[in-house]
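Let's see one such:

===
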Amino acid sequence: MGRTIGFRRAGIDDLALVHRWMQEEHVHPFWNLNIPLDRFRTHYEKALADSHQTLYIGTIDGEPVSYWEAYWVKGDVLEGSYPAAPFDQGVHLLIGEKAYLGKGCALPFLREMVRYQFQEPKTAKVAAEPDIRNEKMIHVFERCGFRRIKPIPLPDKQAQLMFCEREEFEKRWNDVYDTTCL
């Protein structure tokens, strides 16, 4: 029997939790936010106030285990990396709790977030740009329906640009609404 995943909007009350996750050995090489809490607070408050993105905490049976940034490509640093359409969206994620690593949770989480992003009828594409060294996450993106486009330089990393097209996603997952893992 699986446990149920879900999402809730992140808020300032999640500052300490997200900061703790950014310190984790499996996170900080790819997010580069293992900075003191006062500096992270400035970054996090700016992210919360940014109208082109929404921050989420991913939960399993209500327990916080992951952090998500769903964003509009227009207005993001990614916009200059390809000819973005007005309603293209993007996604960043991390599994923060070490107890949930390698348990098969990343794919159901990602699938449900992308499904949510495609609820905007004008969104035909969801982009991702994981660190090019993060083969585990690139593999999860591919299993979800993303395809590798090209390596791209971003201000904080060398990234692998990936796209998930609505048609491919729906073909792969239209009848799958499994929000369980473990």
In short: The radius of gyration is 16 Å. The first strand starts at residue 3 and ends at 9. The beta strands are 3-9, 53-60, 63-72, 89-95, 125-128, 147-154, 157-165, 180-181. Residues 3-181 form a domain with the Aminopeptidase fold (CATH 3.40.630.30).
